Amino acid sequence: MLRPLSLLIMRIGTGILLVLWGSLRLMNPGTGTGLAEKYYGGVASASALQTGFAVFEVILGALVVLGLLRKYTLPLQALVLVGGALAIWKHFLDPFGMYLHEDANLLFFPSLTVAGATLALIAFRKEDTLSLDRLVKRFAD
Questions:
Q1: pTM, rounded to two decimals
Q2: Which of 82, 102, 104, 127 is deepest in the core (most CB within 10 A)?
Q3: Run of H or E residues at 95
């Protein structure tokens, strides 16, 4: 019972993170634009793209929390969360900002754990027996 419970907790945690980030982007559209410009080289920094991505994040996060369509939602979540972690790789190698950058922020470091949890959810998807799609036997495999 420990494995399904652990997977449920990881799914809820990573999904809620997407809901929170998407909600923040919706409530304060400048946040997403600022992040895109600072950490992603300005890619997709247009306000309309940020709003669309915010809605996508909220919906995706809610589906992940509920455990619906995991065959599709978990890889999409991995693209968002692992991709986000890759963009801040310097913060993992130099968390204090002494050598690779000057923007020290230890709050970035947990992104590495979130990326790992996301990949673990994909690896152990068939053992996540506490998901709604598993309970209704649709899209479980």
A1: 0.85
A2: 82
A3: none
